[in-house]
From TrEMBL:
Pathway info: Amino-acid biosynthesis; L-methionine biosynthesis via de novo pathway; One-carbon metabolism; tetrahydrofolate interconversion
The protein's name in its UniProt record: Methylenetetrahydrofolate reductase
UniProt KW NAD keyword: yes
Gene that encodes the chain: metF
Membership in a protein family: Belongs to the methylenetetrahydrofolate reductase family.
Keywords noted in UniProt: Amino-acid biosynthesis, FAD, Flavoprotein, Methionine biosynthesis, NAD, Oxidoreductase
Enzyme Commission number(s) from the entry: 1.5.1.54
Gene Ontology terms: biological process: methionine biosynthetic process; tetrahydrofolate interconversion
Domain of life: Bacteria
Recorded GO MF terms: FAD binding; methylenetetrahydrofolate reductase (NADH) activity
Amino acid sequence: MTSPIASPTVVSRLSEPHSGPVPFSVEFFPPKDAPAEERLWRAVRIFERLRPAFVSLTYGAGGGTRDRTVRIAGELARETTLTTVAHLTAVNHSLDELRAMVGSYADQGITNVLALRGDPPGNPMGEWVKHPEGVAYAEELVRLVGELGDFQVGVASFPEGHHRSPTLDEDTRFLLGKLRAGAEYSITQMFFDVEDYFRLRDRVVAADPEQGAKPIIPGIMPITSLASVRRMLELSGSKLPADVDARLTAAAGNDEEANREAIRAVGIDLATEMSERLIAEGAPCLHFCSLNFARATTEVLDRLGMNVLVP
């Protein structure tokens, strides 16, 4: 495969000047229909003026959004000033299909890829079945992408441990395997207890200081709805700490729908408090799960002194 024209890498972007105390980045997902796509692009244009270090575009389990992911990732790379990271998952894909997907990204000028094993379609907690001609682990996917051209590869990390890992030590071993295979950074699954992030970082550094020097970027989701966060927790296997749950439950009172604004206010407070701790303790970047909306993330950025629009 011919190497694509290199765009700025995620790691290089993290070291460039930024308006706030740390850089930030944003995660989008492929929209399902035309109105949702319009909403995505409204958010994209707002964030573009805030100059995130990078943006990422997720990839549906089992490749359900593959074509849309490639198209929109290409449009983000070509039609905006944003450094774009495209997700790539191993679920239900042969090696030939994975190579073709990486080639499609290269054709779009995308040189930053987040390599994920991915979750089974339909039931993320269900049995993970390797494609007979595919790969079994994200580590293999990292190596594959590295063999196909001049890409910078990132991977996922899990502050609470991946739900399939029997222990945190085993989970750390898997992360180190991905980093040693060539991944240059990781982005964490969303979490709501910053101590889980610090413990993850400490485990990696203690196990392998060289790999521990690579950025571990915390994933943050400002909570705007109890229903949506419950669904995200169900899909990810993460949990709400008792004190966070208590604050949200108190805001919801006995009518979650009627108290949506109170819930949202607590969610913004929580994301801001987490971000402040992460900045103070040296997190290299803040990665916001936007759900294709700009308002909640920009409110948090504003409180952090990072909401600086560029004309």
